[in-house]
Amino acid sequence: MKTILNIIWLILCGFWMFLGYLLAGALLCVTIIGIPFGVAAFRIGRYALWPFGYTVVDRRGAGAPSCVGNVLWLVLAGWWLALGHIVTGIALCVTIIGIPLGIANFKLIPVSLLPLGKEIVATDEPFAAR
Fold it and tell me: What mean pLDDT do residues 69-82 have?
């Protein structure tokens, strides 16, 4: 079932969201200071490309630097990416078959707003990062 949902996701919105994360990551990697943010964008972009079967967990030991980084991320790229998830989530929820995909888009909003201090793991091992 995960594979079918991922294929439908990829066709309807996953590829476009992936391109948005790639663009954000490339723009953020232009400066040395932005490289950690660009890496986070690439990591979330991979998750946005194929989300079913994976989940987001908090990473242990992510303290004040990730908090400060999340504030910068929110200003630089986070709200644009979250807006993209909101728009595509609403558009997908218009059809019955798109409702699970729209809900998945809404679940990606928190990680697109505040990605630092998070880790993406397979759903069968959500506590592996802890």
Answer: 86
Please tell me the pTM assigned to this model. Answer: 0.79
More confident residue, 38 or 76: 38
Q: What is the mean pLDDT of residues 93-108?
A: 90
- Half-sphere exposure (Cβ direction) of 7: Cα atoms closer than 13 Å: 3
**CA torsion angle for 25, 31, 37, 40 (degrees, to 10)?**
50
Alpha carbons 95 and 88: distance in angstroms, whole number: 12
Contact of 78 with 112, CB cutoff 8 Å: yes
**Which residues make beta-bridge pairs with 119?**
57
Of 129, 115, 120, 130, the closest CA to residue 52 belongs to: 120
